[in-house]
Amino acid sequence: MRDLDETDLEILSLLAANARRPFSEIGERVGLSGPAVSDRVTRLEESGVIEGFTLDVDRTMLRAGVPVMIDLEFAAAEAASTDGVDPLDAARERARDADAVEHIFVTAEGDLRVYARVEGRNVREWVRRLFDGVPVADYAVTLVDEFEWTPSIEGVEFALTCAECSNTVDSEGETTRIDGEVYHFCCPSCLSRFQERYRRLEDGV
């Protein structure tokens, strides 16, 4: 896959500030014609860097639930779920499917950290239900007083991440499309592992 150049990053920055900005206006800012900007945006969409133009709703303004940070530690690898799925993968899938979860992080130690806004007062009961059946060794719930999320797409802070291991994907990485979705990988090994696990899930193994 090709590297993102400075013009790509500037276009992304302008779209992030205002997704309705006309391509002609962006072109004036980056030194390209409107059609040339359109072509670049199309390539960014096809490569999965841009996944549509959506509303960015700040849930903190809506006060939708109690903001919490949940840290989960998992049992030893041999204590995997009964269906053979790795505990971390199983917990991450549960978190992805939960409407209350806004951000998911995986630590270098293989633990899971989840930021969520949970309805109701019994947060621990919500956590218990969400991860029921997943061999969690221990977990901690922290009430969040203030939260600030300031992702950047300037310079080196913008990077694609591997769908398998979450490492940064560089120009030597791999890109593939599975069932209409574009996935990026840092190396062929990660691509192979992802495809194998995907096939097992499809086959119900």
Summarize it.
It is built from seven helices and eight strands; from the N terminus they run ααααβαββαβββββα.
In words, what does this structure look like?
The protein is of the alpha+beta class and 205 residues long. The longest helix is centred in the C-terminal third of the chain and has 16 residues, at 188-203. The chain folds into 3 domains: 1-54, Winged helix-like DNA-binding domain superfamily/Winged helix DNA-binding domain (Arc Repressor Mutant, subunit A, Orthogonal Bundle); 59-143, 2-Layer Sandwich (Alpha-Beta Plaits), CATH 3.30.70.920; 159-205, Ribosomal Protein L24e, Chain: T, CATH 2.30.170. The protein has helices spanning 6-17, 23-30, 34-46, 59-62, 87-97, 123-130, 188-203, and strands at residues 66-74, 101-106, 112-118, 136-143, 160-161, 168-169, 174-178, 181-185. Helix 2 packs across helix 3. It has a 4-stranded antiparallel sheet. Strands 5-6 form a two-stranded antiparallel sheet. A two-stranded antiparallel sheet has the order 7-8. 35% of the residues lie in helices and 21% in strands. The protein starts with 5 loop residues before the first helix and ends with a helix.
What is the fold named in CATH at topology level of the largest domain?
A: Alpha-Beta Plaits
Give me the CATH superfamily of the largest domain.
Answer: Lrp/AsnC effector binding domain/regulation of amino acid metabolism (RAM) domain
Oligomeric state of the chains present here: single chain
For the biggest sheet, the summary is: 4 strands, antiparallel
Beta-strand content bin: 15-25%
Mean pLDDT: 78
Helix amount: 25-40%
Tell me the CATH architecture of the largest domain.
2-Layer Sandwich
Radius of gyration: 20 Å
Shape: globular
Strand arrangement, largest sheet? 2-3-1-4
Name the helix and strand elements from N-terminus to C-terminus, one letter apiece.
HHHHEHEEHEEEEEH
Give the C-level CATH assignment of the largest domain: Alpha Beta
Which stretches of 5+ consecutive residues score pLDDT under 50? 59-63
How many angstroms separate the termini? 32 Å
Number of domains: 3
Structural class: alpha+beta
Count of alpha and pi helical runs: 7
The total count of strands amounts to 8
Domain HTH asnC-type: 4-67
Protein name: AsnC family transcriptional regulator
GO molecular function: sequence-specific DNA binding
Pfam family, one: TRASH_HVO_1752_C
